[in-house]
Amino acid sequence: MAKVNENYLKLPGSYLFSTIAKKVAAFQAEHPDREIIKMVIGDVTRPLVPAVIEAMHKAVDEMGTAEGFRGYGPEQGYDFLRNKIVEFDYKGLGIEADEIFVSDGAKSDCGNIGDIFGIDNKVAVCDPVYPVYVDTNAMAGRAGEFIEDHWSNLYYMPCTAENGFMPELPKEKVDIIYLCFPNNPTGETATRDQLKVWVDYAKANGSVILFDSAYEAFITEDDVPHSIYEVEGAKEVAIEFRSFSKTAGFTGTRCAYTVVPKALKVNGTELNALWNRRQCTKFNGVPYIIQKAAEAVYTDEGRKQIMENINYYLENAKIMREALSGAGLEVYGGKNSPYVWAKAPNGMKSWDFFEKLLNEAGVVSTPGSGFGPSGEGYIRFTAFSTRENTIKAMENVKAIL
Ligand code: MLT
């Protein structure tokens, strides 16, 4: 008789953003006349930039010619894109093209990377945390049992206002450490010195850091590193995930990449070779048309155009920070990030504040507790709405506080 993966049966409810989507759909069905502004999942609203569209059109035309047609591409990504990534995103950091693996998303890569690690690794996650790291480890059987609000076998590293949203080094030995900076959900950042502490820990303990830098394009401050490889020695201990989703508006277009340095070895085994083996077996690469579109992000016009969009979202974040702190809330993030993390008023719980915002202000946010126990009492807003909706949403929120 067939057996299911019983780890799936241990997962609580549905994926966070699906739970919220269901709640919002139910609210809309009950109140068809109410206007709702969604500041929930980090999905962009600005269209793809002209440089990207032009490159995509050209690639479509090429695919319609005998000379330009392409079937299966390299599973790791075309060299034209891998070389551009090295040249622009890792300039001077000693990363090589064969250490870059182009993929359809950082979310998929953050989840799939678990394939190359044993089940008995002790995994550490920040708390609050992007739920994909936790849920995918639970699916693999690495997280233990779900008890009330946490997994018994994961090591949670609280990131709170008290510690500046920077996790402290684990008090027990951990093998795999997920770090995300600029952070999702808090929007806060880590300095080079702070990241060095983690690189040193990983070196001393034989641990691997899984570094999610999907939001690096939003960094505005000089002392905030864009890549963990800016820290000496990181290539021996860290894998890095990046994405064109938030950087270039590719949430629906799908292109990202993962960096697995060849210097990174676990018990003498090169993780680059394992990830390559995994990708060649389970993945057929990102479409040529999409990789051509991603390549255009690195042209002069492309870079200028995507920065205009990023600055647009950062201005939204500023408007939100000012409105929410003006209304008396404690506000974090939003300076080097599209996420604004706010403390609910009067000790309210996250889901209660979520309901109040939805029912009274017509604004959909993400409850902090959905990101982990230490997110309780907080709420996350994204800056990816239109300017008009951002302003309207903040007016609505201010009116009910
Ligand atoms: C989020 O809202 O946390 C992100 O958009 C989710 C994602 O990128 O998958």
Structure description:
This protein has 401 residues and is α/β, with parallel strands linked by helices. It has two domains: 13-47 and 301-400, Alpha-Beta Complex (Aspartate Aminotransferase, domain 1), CATH 3.90.1150; 52-299, Aspartate Aminotransferase, domain 2 (3-Layer(aba) Sandwich). 37% of the residues lie in helices and 15% in strands. The protein has helices at 16-30, 50-63, 79-89, 106-112, 131-140, 192-205, 244-248, 271-282, 288-295, 300-326, 350-361, 387-400, and strands spanning 37-38, 100-103, 123-127, 146-147, 150-151, 155-158, 176-180, 208-212, 238-243, 256-259, 265-266, 269-270, 331-333, 339-343, 363-364, 366-367, 378-382. Strands 2-10-9-8-7-3-6 form a seven-stranded mixed beta sheet, sandwiched between helices. Strands 13-14-17-16 form a four-stranded antiparallel beta sheet. The longest helix is centred in the C-terminal third of the chain and has 27 residues, at 300-326. The chain is globular, with a radius of gyration of 21 Å. The mean pLDDT is 97. It binds D-malate. D-malate binds next to loops.
